[in-house]
Amino acid sequence: MAPDALGRLTALGRTVSDRGLLARALRRLDDGHGLAAKIAAEPRVEEVVAQFASRLLDAFGPLSALRGQAVLDIACGSNTSRSPTTGLRTAAFEPWMCRLLAELGAHPVGVDIGDLDGETFVHHRVDLAVAGALDFLVTGSFDAIHESRLFGSPEFRAAHGRATERIRREIHQQERRLLRPGGILIHSDGRPAAASRSPHLGQ
Description:
The chain has about 200 residues and is an alpha/beta fold. It is built from 7 helices and 6 strands; from the N terminus they run ααααβαβββααββ.
């Protein structure tokens, strides 16, 4: 990875330990997924990775707290994602959160309608617009759930129109079902709260 990009992303860590964990994870993302070249080609990729790292720090505190955590990433992105503005394939919507979680020692599960073949984390190809799309996941099986970009996506809203709000309600019901008691919910599509803890499994 280019030293300046590595330095900027690593500097997001709030402690020496966090910076060390981030540096190691970013090197592995570069080795496995060409992060440096993708940042050079699309500067937005650095912004996306930085946002995800910051969300994890806000939600969990020290990054070491992620080790062993089961984390569901809803609409995680894929290797076939395209820019809603240009229609061209973009690395900005690859599954960076799941990749980062895996490198930090968590157990991510990604769901997306796009292609995730070849990814090392557990993943499922799911059309989230279909009623009951997440029913196959076990109740109370996740320590944290991350959801971003889906409902703020112009593509999603254009495809589903008025049904978007129905889909949003169902996904949020599923999140409450899937979170363990005390689990962390990270909503990142424009809502003001970065993360919240679920006191119990609710409806």
